[in-house]
């Protein structure tokens, strides 16, 4: 799964795609990236170090052009807070990293979003009247845990 430190519509393979965002807890972000295999697209060393400290995973610095296609799922670590000092390796007071799953493509009548991680990744199963697979046991990404 691609790990991004920002999101831009320029990352979409087509401007006609539906995109959904689901914020998750840092612990779940770490678990999902560990299970799915982390493919870093984090282009700044300082950001990679901050992500490593929060996630407990190795985050290589990779400056690359990201193109997301229909059906792809990525994780965004979105920094929110005061501008980081040069060389900062800890989050300053009042700062936070929001962990967000971005899914490219929409729901269909046969697919649904996992109630745990928010991913639409081929889940077929129990639905509530809200259309959300709350049990999550069929989720290919998080396994519903």
In short, what is this structure?
The protein is an alpha/beta fold and 145 residues long. It has helices spanning 26-36, 45-55, and strands at residues 2-4, 19-24, 39-40, 73-80, 96-104, 113-114, 132-133.
Which fold name corresponds to the CATH topology of the largest domain?
Answer: Rossmann fold
**Can you list the strand order of the major beta sheet?**
2-5-4-1-3
Query: How many domains, as an integer?
Result: 2
Outline type: globular
- Gyration radius from CA atoms, angstroms: 16 Å
Which regions contain 5 or more consecutive residues with pLDDT less than 50?
124-136
Major sheet: size, sense and barrel closure?
5 strands, mixed
What is the percent of helical residues? 10-25%
List the secondary-structure elements in sequence, H or E: EEHEHEEEE
Distance between the termini: 18 Å
Q: Provide a count of the helices.
A: 2
Reading off the top of the CATH hierarchy, the class of the largest domain is best stated as Alpha Beta
User: What CATH architecture label of the largest domain applies?
Assistant: 3-Layer(aba) Sandwich
DSSP summary, beta strand count: 7
Measured by DSSP, the beta-strand proportion falls in 15-25%
CATH superfamily of the largest domain: Uncharacterised protein PF08960, DUF1874
């Amino acid at each position: 799964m691609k790990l991004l430190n920002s999101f831009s519509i320029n990352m979409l393979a087509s401007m006609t795609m539906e995109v959904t965002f689901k914020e998750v807890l840092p612990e779940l972000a770490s678990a999902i990236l560990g299970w799915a295999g982390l493919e870093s697209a984090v282009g700044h060393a300082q950001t990679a170090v901050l992500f490593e400290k929060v996630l407990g995973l190795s985050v290589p610095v990779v400056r690359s052009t990201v193109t997301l296609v229909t059906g792809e799922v990525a994780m965004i670590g979105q920094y929110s807070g005061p501008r980081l000092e040069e060389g900062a390796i800890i989050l300053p007071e009042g700062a936070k990293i929001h962990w967000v799953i971005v899914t490219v493509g929409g729901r269909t009548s046969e697919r649904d979003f996992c109630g745990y991680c928010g991913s639409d990744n081929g889940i077929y199963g129990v639905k509530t009247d809200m259309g959300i697979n709350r049990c999550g046991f069929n989720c290919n990404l998080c396994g519903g845990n």
